[in-house]
Amino acid sequence: MRKQRIHQIVLYIIITVLAAIFIYQALRKVAGHSWQIESLVLVLIASTLAVAVSNRAKVSELNGEFRHFKRSFGALASDFKEMRKDFHNLKTAQEKFNNWSRIQFNEIKRDIAK
Questions:
Q1: How far apart are CA 63 and CA 55, in angstroms?
Q2: Is the pLDDT score of 32 beyond 80?
Q3: Is the dihedral of CA 89, 90, 93, 99 positive or negative?
Q4: pTM value?
Q5: Is the pLDDT of residue 98 over 80?
Q6: Region 59-87: what's the mean pLDDT?
Q7: What is the rounded CA–CA span in Å between residue 23 and residue 44?
Q8: Mean pLDDT, to the nearest integer, of 3-32?
Q9: 64 membership: H or E segment, kind and range
Q10: Whole-angstrom Cα distance, residue 16 to residue 110?
Q11: What whole-number distance in Å separates Cα of residue 106 and Cα of residue 38?
Q12: Torsion angle, CA of 53/59/60/62, rounded to 10 degrees?
């Protein structure tokens, strides 16, 4: 993780330097003292490439975080399925007990009525 952060900082420094060179050359072009226009285009292409690489690194980092989230969410879903099954089993056992106690109560009631 630290190595990736260092690469990211270096990439931002490169982007900043390329942007500064482009702005400097654009101002020189406006003032009438400039390199050839191809140099400006080359700096612009290089800075665009650096931004694209930076964006790719960010997307890759987010994709890894999403994969971790997806795995955690899958574990949570399986836990909820188990809990649902346990609640269903508990409800079934409660219904069986209620039926048994109702039968016992009715039998005791009949015995008392005799």
A1: 12
A2: no
A3: negative
A4: 0.37
A5: yes
A6: 80
A7: 10
A8: 78
A9: helix 37-113
A10: 93
A11: 99
A12: 150
